[in-house]
């Protein structure tokens, strides 16, 4: 994972009070951004960076556990994060994937917390998860403040007393889950690319040679002694960082951490392996096949990691070259030469090394040699030129502003402190990192680019053909049994044993409280557009949604309507798309159109310092959209490329197969199907303009806005921008479609995809869910059946059978026909039995094994905690406001969410499922290798229809 993506998840910031750049903007010449404006905008960005502050305190226990505490009492929640200094780079030969395997084993109980670890915190409103990288493993919980002591008890118990609860059954279960997670990744049509790049740039014996998830052979070979030894060597308190962020003070943190972790003895101290990123000795060229339609060309170099300044500069290089709107690489190879459908440059850095990759997917019919030569010329050209200062400034702005926007809650701040403390041994390193980005110049950028990219490289060409499976992963598709590897036993480390003392019982937790919601305000612009507003303090940003009645099912010309919304942000008021994109990046503004099955919208968000410019962009979209030929042609090319590229994607095949069977006459079918090249190319400016005139009207409009600014400050800006906007004539009525679902007959469609690694299963049933009704009862009922990690469907197929990495089900509430949908990627030799288990679970929960009182109590706790977490974030508040506006819910709807959840009854949740789910009415689609799957289906007693993938999605 690139560290810059981690950075975009955390911090707090005082409001900027002097919009320097805004005050200095010049009209300048049309479609030209002056150097003075660029410099002024960069000054604003650098001030943002210097004002970033996360207050924290630290202490260290005598056993070496490092603790970071960040206080934020705005919401009664605490983020608990334990990061261990162990990742795949610490794994001995023959034991790849052990760090990630332990990420799973640590959630299966410890000596004093037996069984399903997550349930002890989920049931009281907590959220629990973990992740593993090549450098570290992280476990975290977001819990009500009342559950902090329980969370610390549990984290300390699995740090100090895990092995007594670790048995062969648990190992076998989680080994199976991990192997199905690996199948999920291997199912990607280009999965061979990551394998080839990694294993070539990092030769055997290099700490980064193996993948985090490990090989099938090593996972098969792991035994109980192996995993116990690995735990003893790496999971001591002196290899860990504990972060507490949120509603906790330092005295409480010190008392509880000492109480629960102080008695755990230190273990062996992990030492970072010595890794010195060095260029390859020579260029290596290779060609492999994969189940793709067109070739992909890859150029990759080993580069510095984030323990060096160059690791951050390489981020900037990839972004100024190929990361922003109208970037030079895409502009040349995609738009001008039209050789590739997409190209990218990326810097995937770990702590001690990285991979800089340039890749391109050929457009159909393009000669491979011609495309490869063109890509190489672009690389050579880039290394001989110098990037423009404006390009650097736009990159820094488009990175920093979203970074700041995400820093509005203690959870994200805690995650950042954990990452910087474990990576740099310094919680405040985030500011140093950002300063590196913002200090780049054309000279520093190009000096670093030439240092690392003017070197031998790995040249990989992937052409259409059979899937290549690495030797150590043989049998991953179920076609060949995989043989356990023979590996030498390591020297067993001394046992890690807790100091002998009585342990307290699992701490009790008070029920979750009511989720707070900011006061709602309403207003109306002069032209009658209603405004729904809530304030979210913390970071100086505004989110503005201008929504329009009418979704794609209402549009006669739905394809032109889609183009219209997509093109709204691509040029207006005579400004070119290129100029507008550059300006939005520089100002940190997003402004554009979007449409879904519910409605169309113009969305705008950005830092308050530039929000006036954002409102001006909205005004231009409403009054004078250009719908110019250049962006329209680009969109046609993009849509055609996407249709060709995705035609054999599992999701595309599933949707295309299910639509004519599940609800044959549904009005959603026409908008969900893949468009043909003829349909796409037939869209023109007249049709797009007609769609604009039909739908973009103030009579259809409503505004939802969330900001740290009070509504009184925003109203004058909105009035100035769109308060006087009117459209001549009377708005046509939008009559509802007279449609009642007519379900198709039960059937299984098996779509044959030879070379598939997994069986992708989707099942659907038409339901009578009311689109406008509050959903707490149905949501909680589905939490038990298929909506959460602990749901019956997921626990059955993942934890009990370990046939899948995950399985889920959900209700989809729609105006013209709701449905329930199940999905899972399962081992191909278990596809038929998996469907049988799903049918069994649905029959049981709607008849002789209904939801129990214990399950309902647990799910209520989970739902209450999830609501509290959601409503502490800007995105969660906006989602709730939109839900209220869309369904015309009263102003107290959000504030009463917790009360509605508590009022759900056992009789209510069981009745909700019984009235909706009928297991004999389902339609199923399976994508996978028919030779393996077909024999399994006869036992189900459901008609089976086998089709080739090309029959579902013929080649254009």
Account of the 3D structure:
The protein is α+β, with helices and mostly antiparallel strands and 956 residues long. The chain has 4 domains: 3-52 and 276-464, Cytochrome Bc1 Complex, Chain A, domain 1 (2-Layer Sandwich); 57-273, Cytochrome Bc1 Complex, Chain A, domain 1, CATH 3.30.830.10; 536-723, Cytochrome Bc1 Complex, Chain A, domain 1, CATH 3.30.830.10; 747-952, Metalloenzyme, LuxS/M16 peptidase-like (Cytochrome Bc1 Complex, Chain A, domain 1). 42% of the residues lie in helices and 17% in strands. The protein is built from 36 helices and 23 strands. Strands 1-2-6-3-5-4 form a 6-stranded mixed sheet, with helices on both faces. The protein has a 6-stranded mixed sheet with strand order 12-13-17-14-16-15, with helices on both faces. Residues 1-29 and 481-501 have low confidence and may be disordered. This is Insulinase family protein.
Give a short overview.
By secondary structure, this protein is an alpha+beta fold.
Provide the low-confidence segments as ranges: 1-29, 481-501
Helix percentage range: 40-55%
Q: Supply the CATH class of the largest domain.
A: Alpha Beta
Rg measurement, Å: 28 Å
Oligomer: single chain
Measure the end-to-end span.
36 Å
CATH superfamily of the largest domain: Metalloenzyme, LuxS/M16 peptidase-like
Which band does the percent of strand residues land in?
A: 15-25%
Summarize the helices and strands and which ones pair or pack.
Blueprint: H1 3-7, H2 20-24, H3 35-51, E1 57-60, E2 66-71, E3 77-84, H4 98-105, H5 119-122, E4 127-132, E5 137-144, H6 148-160, H7 168-186, H8 191-201, H9 216-221, H10 224-234, E6 240-246, H11 250-261, E7 284-290, E8 296-303, H12 309-322, H13 328-336, E9 340-349, E10 354-362, H14 368-384, H15 389-405, H16 410-424, H17 429-438, H18 442-453, E11 458-464, E12 520-524, E13 530-535, E14 541-548, H19 558-567, H20 577-587, E15 590-595, E16 600-607, H21 611-623, H22 629-646, H23 650-662, H24 669-672, H25 677-681, H26 685-695, E17 701-707, H27 711-723, E18 747-752, E19 759-767, H28 776-787, H29 792-800, E20 804-812, E21 818-826, H30 831-845, H31 853-870, H32 874-887, H33 897-903, H34 906-916, E22 923-928, H35 930-933, E23 944-948, H36 949-952
Parallel strand pairs: 2-6, 7-11, 13-17, 18-22, 18-23
Antiparallel strand pairs: 1-2, 3-5, 3-6, 4-5, 8-10, 8-11, 9-10, 12-13, 14-16, 14-17, 15-16, 19-21, 19-22, 20-21
Helix pairs in contact: 3-15, 3-17, 4-7, 6-11, 12-18, 15-20, 19-26, 21-27, 28-31, 28-34, 29-30, 31-33
């Amino acid at each position: 994972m690139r560290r810059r993506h981690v950075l975009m998840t955390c911090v707090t910031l005082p409001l900027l009070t002097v919009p320097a750049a805004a005050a200095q903007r010049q009209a300048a010449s049309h479609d030209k951004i002056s150097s003075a404006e660029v410099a002024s905008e960069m000054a604003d960005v650098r001030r943002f960076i210097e004002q970033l502050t996360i207050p924290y305190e630290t202490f260290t226990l005598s056993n070496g556990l490092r603790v970071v505490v960040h206080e934020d009492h705005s919401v009664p929640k605490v983020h608990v994060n334990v990061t261990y200094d162990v990742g795949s780079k610490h794994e001995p030969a023959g034991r790849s994937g052990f760090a990630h395997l332990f990420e799973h084993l640590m959630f299966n109980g410890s000596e004093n917390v037996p069984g399903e670890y997550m349930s002890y915190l989920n049931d009281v409103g907590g959220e629990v998860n973990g992740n593993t990288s090549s450098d570290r493993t992280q476990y975290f919980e977001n819990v009500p403040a009342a559950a902090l002591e329980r969370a610390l008890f549990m984290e300390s118990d699995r740090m100090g007393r895990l092995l007594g609860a670790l048995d062969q059954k648990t190992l076998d279960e989680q080994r199976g889950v991990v192997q199905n997670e690996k199948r999920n990744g291997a199912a990607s049509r280009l999965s061979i690319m990551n394998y080839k790049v990694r294993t070539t740039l990092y030769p055997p014996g290099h700490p980064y040679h193996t993948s985090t998830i490990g090989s099938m052979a090593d996972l098969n070979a792991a035994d109980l002694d192996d995993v116990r030894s690995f735990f003893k060597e790496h999971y001591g308190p002196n290899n860990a960082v504990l972060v507490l962020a949120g509603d906790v003070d330092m005295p409480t943190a010190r008392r509880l951490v000492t109480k629960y972790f102080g008695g755990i003895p230190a273990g062996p101290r992990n030492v970072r392996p010595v890794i010195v990123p060095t260029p390859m000795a020579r260029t290596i060229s290779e060609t492999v096949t994969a189940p793709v339609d067109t070739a992909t060309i890859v150029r990759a170099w080993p580069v510095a990691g984030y323990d060096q300044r160059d690791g951050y500069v390489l981020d900037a290089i990839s972004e100024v070259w190929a990361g922003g709107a109208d970037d030079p690489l895409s502009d040349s190879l995609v738009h001008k030469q039209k050789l590739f459908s997409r190209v990218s440059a990326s810097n995937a850095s770990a702590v001690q090394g990285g991979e800089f990759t340039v890749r391109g997917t050929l457009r159909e019919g393009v000669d491979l040699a011609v495309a490869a030569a063109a890509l190489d010329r672009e690389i050579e050209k880039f290394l001989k030129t110098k990037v423009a200062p404006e390009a650097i400034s736009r990159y820094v702005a488009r990175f920093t502003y979203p970074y700041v926007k995400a820093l509005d809650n203690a959870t994200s701040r805690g995650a950042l402190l954990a990452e910087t403390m474990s990576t740099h041994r310094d919680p405040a390193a985030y500011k140093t990192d950002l300063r590196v980005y913002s200090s780049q110049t054309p000279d520093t950028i190009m000096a670093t680019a030439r240092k690392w990219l003017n070197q031998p490289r790995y040249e990989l060409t992937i052409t259409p053909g059979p899937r290549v499976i690495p030797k150590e992963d043989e049998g991953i598709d179920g076609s060949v049994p995989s043989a356990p590897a023979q590996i030498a036993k390591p020297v067993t480390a001394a046992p890690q044993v807790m100091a002998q003392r009585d342990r307290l019982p699992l701490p009790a937790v008070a029920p979750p409280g009511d989720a707070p919601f900011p006061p709602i305000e309403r207003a109306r612009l002069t032209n009658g557009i209603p405004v729904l507003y809530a304030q979210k303090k913390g970071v100086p940003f505004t989110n503005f949604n201008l929504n329009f009645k009418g979704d794609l099912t209402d549009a006669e010309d739905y394809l032109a309507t889609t183009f219209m919304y997509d093109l709204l942000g691509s040029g207006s008021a005579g400004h070119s798309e290129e100029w507008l994109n550059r300006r939005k990046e520089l100002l940190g503004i997003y402004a554009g159109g979007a449409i879904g099955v519910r409605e169309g919208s113009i969305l705008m968000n950005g830092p308050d310092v530039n929000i006036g410019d954002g409102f001006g962009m909205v005004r231009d979209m409403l009054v004078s959209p250009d719908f110019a030929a250049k962006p329209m042609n680009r969109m046609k090319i993009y849509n055609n490329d996407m249709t060709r590229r995705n035609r054999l994607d599992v999701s595309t095949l599933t949707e295309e197969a299910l639509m004519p069977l599940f609800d044959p006459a549904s009005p959603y079918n026409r908008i969900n199907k893949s468009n043909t090249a003829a349909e796409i190319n037939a869209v023109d400016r007249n049709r797009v303009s007609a769609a604009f005139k039909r739908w973009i009207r103030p009579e259809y409009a409503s505004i939802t806005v969330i900001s740290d600014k009070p509504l009184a400050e925003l109203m004058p800006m909105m009035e100035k921008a769109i308060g006087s906007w009117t459209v001549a004539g009377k708005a046509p009525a939008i009559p509802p479609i007279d449609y009642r679902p007519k379900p198709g007959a039960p059937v299984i469609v098996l779509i044959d995809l030879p070379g598939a690694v997994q069986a992708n299963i989707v099942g659907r049933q038409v339901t009578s869910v009311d689109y406008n009704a509050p959903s707490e009862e149905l949501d909680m009922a589905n939490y038990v059946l298929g909506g959460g990690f602990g749901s019956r469907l997921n626990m059955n197929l993942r934890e009990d059978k370990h046939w899948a990495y995950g399985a889920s089900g959900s209700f989809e509430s729609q105006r013209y026909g709701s449905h329930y949908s199940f999905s899972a990627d399962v081992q191909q030799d278990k596809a038929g039995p998996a469907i049988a288990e799903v049918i069994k679970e649905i029959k049981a929960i709607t008849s002789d094994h209904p939801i129990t009182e214990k399950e309902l109590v647990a799910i209520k706790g989970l739902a209450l905690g999830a609501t509290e977490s959601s409503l502490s974030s800007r995105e969660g508040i906006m989602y709730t406001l939109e839900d209220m506006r869309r369904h015309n819910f009263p102003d107290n709807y959000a504030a009463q969410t917790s009360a509605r959840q508590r009022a759900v009854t056992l009789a209510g949740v069981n009745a909700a499922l019984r009235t909706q789910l009928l297991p004999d009415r389902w339609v199923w689609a399976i994508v996978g290798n028919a030779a393996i799957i077909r024999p399994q289906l006869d036992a189900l007693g459901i008609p089976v229809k086998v089709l080739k993938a090309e029959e579902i999605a013929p080649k254009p």
